[in-house]
């Protein structure tokens, strides 16, 4: 059965990363792609391509530049554009972009973020009548790894991945509590990487190490749901929907090469989705997926095919979010990442669609609408 969770099976994801880099330069992808200023145009383009739902985000660093003082001018046009175009948005409250002067590892970070989440929920409630959807903290697992173990994201630490993961889980739980104090009907989801790590060799030690890697990918969700580390305050109602991020390079040999699609070691996506979804009672969706260049349509077709196989085998996947929907410049090297439906990297650039990917989206949208009708009639 195919049952869309957010109105349409295919969704668009607007990259909204806003973190500071090691160079101290701050990213703001929503600004550099022009999406922040052109949200209404972009949402209408989504609808024109058969997508009525999206992931998008608030930029905390712009909204609360001084503690407790909120300026919603960067967000209200986007919120109103979503309402006017009837686009269902899953709002990221924190996509790496912490305001200046906030230490992510301090207790103050949690209280200040929770207060921001409460005020964001209040603003959204004042502007819309529908139940909102939120991802409180984007990619807790990846952020903990990149910020706590490899030193590539804030707080640029090493050997502190577990500490950072627990802190981000606390923050997400606190934000969820505040959001629901404003709107009890708000839906909370997450966006966590779905990976497959293969052993480095045939030894039992290598197999055990790879198994630990694979199990660790579920740690953040387990913590949020109170299945692990109950001292953090997780509980069964912390998540309404579980989102899995799956890219072309999400399978690799431990400490070795990527296992790409077509490699004999590659595990089909439906075989990863089945056990991952079975761990939890919540519905799931693909929160991010995509690739670059000429392979974009082929990758989308593969993911859609695998979701259909999963559905036939009893794993219900309620959406597929193509991420990002607008191509952008590389975070560190400013290279042109041709990874979206719409190419062009200037804020005022023309939104020209990648023709082959647009055609694949059209075909898959038609396919899923037909499957949803069959499911509804069953």
Automatic annotation (TrEMBL):
Q: Which Gene3D superfamilies match?
A: Glycosidases
Q: Which domain of life is it from?
A: Bacteria
Annotated protein name in UniProt: Beta-glucosidase
